[in-house]
Structure formats: structure tokens, C-alpha cells
UniProtKB/TrEMBL annotation:
It comes from the Bacteria. This is Uncharacterized protein.
Length: 78
């Protein structure tokens, strides 16, 4: 009966390797990262007004978030 419990446990580390776990975590974090789609630089917040504004330092991309309307407006410039 004691040996039954030892062989019934399957550890996740046996199923996928460490590098696959790291790649999955990096992919998950990339979904929440705010960056310019053109130059991949991090967006910088501008002011603390009601429509929150974040923009690319080079001016390629700008995002305005209106929380009361639940709307996000994106501006792309080339």
C-alpha cells in the first residue's frame, strides 16, 4: 500500500522542462507589457488627468484610456 502512493504522483517537472516554463511565463508577461508596436520601447505616462495618456518617447504611438467610458483610443503615426 505504501508504494502505491509513490507511483501515483506525477510531478509537472517530469512533463515539461524548465525552459518551457520560462518561455510560457515570458509570453504571459508580454501580454501585460505596454510597448510601442513600431520601435518596441516602453510607453511613458503623461500627466495624471482623467483620460490617462501613455505615449512612445519617439512619438510613434499614443494610447488614451477613458475609464468612465471604458474606451481605449490608439493613435499611430509614422
Amino acid at each position: 500500500m505504501k508504494n502505491f502512493y509513490k507511483c501515483a504522483i506525477i510531478y509537472p517537472s517530469n512533463l515539461i522542462g524548465f525552459m518551457e516554463i520560462v518561455l510560457m511565463i515570458n509570453k504571459l508577461l508580454s501580454w501585460f507589457k505596454e510597448e510601442c508596436p513600431h520601435c518596441k520601447q516602453q510607453l511613458i505616462g503623461q500627466g495624471s488627468t482623467t483620460p490617462a495618456t501613455k505615449a512612445c518617447p519617439d512619438g510613434h504611438y499614443k494610447v488614451e484610456t477613458h475609464p468612465l467610458l471604458d474606451v481605449q483610443i490608439e493613435y499611430h503615426t509614422k
